[in-house]
Amino acid sequence: MGRKGSPRSPQAEGGSRAASPPSSSPPPSPLSALPEELLLLICSYLDAQALGRLGQVCRRLRFLSSRDLLWRRIARGCLNSGFTQLGTDLAAGIPVKERVKVSRNWRHGRCRRETVLKWKRNLMPWMELDGEYLYLSQAENIQAYRLCPDSAGFQRHPQAIFSGHQEDVCRFVLVNSHIVSGGGDGNIVLHKIHGSYSVKFSAHEQEVNCVDFQGGLIVSGSRDRTAKVWSLSTGRVGQCLHTVRTEDRVWSIAISPLLSSFVTGTACCGHTSPLRIWDLERKCVQEWEEPHDSALYCIRSDKNHMIASGSSYYGVVRLWDKRQTRCLQSFHLSSPISSPVYCLRFSTTHLYAAVASALHVLDFTAP
Known about the structure:
Layout: H1 36-43, H2 48-54, H3 59-65, H4 68-75, H5 96-108, E1 112-118, E2 127-130, E3 133-138, E4 141-146, E5 160-162, E6 169-175, E7 178-183, E8 187-192, E9 198-202, E10 208-214, E11 217-222, E12 226-231, E13 239-245, E14 250-255, E15 261-266, E16 275-279, E17 284-287, E18 296-301, E19 306-311, E20 316-321, E21 329-332, E22 343-346, E23 350-354, E24 358-363
Antiparallel strand pairs: 1-24, 2-3, 3-4, 4-5, 6-7, 7-8, 8-9, 10-11, 11-12, 12-13, 14-15, 15-16, 16-17, 18-19, 19-20, 20-21, 22-23, 23-24
Helix pairs in contact: 4-5
């Protein structure tokens, strides 16, 4: 019985089988041969979506497409991206690309809400944030509290107290190491934070509901239905430069960084738009269509395209794009009772709003 032979190897069949060639890598992109300066020039013509896709190609292009230089042009056209109308960067240290991403959340109203402080009794709070301190008005005084590092809290005992009004402080602003406040006594008081210098002058016939301060000018609004522009120049401190008849109580006011105009929010009691821009010649240059359900109580600008406003009823915060006439987004904050939004402040990532009984925070980094 013959033995079965073992299977033949390919070599036994008279030839060797050719080995499969190793897989070849794709040819390098022509972009990889270009110098960085030329690549940056090409990328400068791309929009945000194209830059994002380019960053998915390879490590080099991901690094290149994330450069602040490329995103700066895009960011200047976005809401609340940290750039002023003149291009000054107010949020240096935060990548511009990340700010553009967060800006989309502002535009579309995507955020996480949290109540961080509550009070036992209803107040009319006003606040300012400045580095390590939170400034809070309480009755006729303004108190400065040191913020706790890496915490949302602050020390319970004030580090400084600023006084000068005979009645409650209605509003105040903190600019260039100065506090400017308006009170129920119709006066405006100017304090230097690190010093004993202070100035007080009579401003309106009724309470000063709102003030703002930029570059040697103070603007104020009052229940007496006027808005006024005041000089702080040497020898002219407290001199009224212009008076605007608003035909309605002025609840909020903000001056432009160019010192060429200011915006007012009024009480919605008349037939005029409650949100208007005025030039320093006392002419109204722009109006917005505002839902006439409540007055505007406070206004805050990113010094470029965005305005945030707070209503005098229902705890409503609204976001505006100055290039459009209609409201972008609205947020209802007060609960369980209706309350004005007495004060709001925002950074490139968070919005803080104080109502009668609580402090609310909207976090636009975590929708």
